[in-house]
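Batch manifest, entry 17 of 40.
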Amino acid sequence: MKSKKAQTLGLAIVMAITIFIVGMLCVNFVKEGVTSARDASNLNCEDADISDGTKLTCLAVDLVVPYFIIVIFSVAGGLIVARLTL
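Output type: structure tokens
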């Protein structure tokens, strides 16, 4: 008979894998939003004559995808670590 801690750890691992898969599937939608935000009709990030504020906004928009991936890894890993320490 398995212990209750081992069962909750197994469930946490399954949930973490599910969160990871769903999160990675959502990255494609986030990338499409970032691409449409940077195009010529919105921020026009490819133009060399944009203001400093627009350049900063373009950099912030470009950081959305890496931060989204970091959040996915953090949530999935945190779920497993939380079950290991309880």
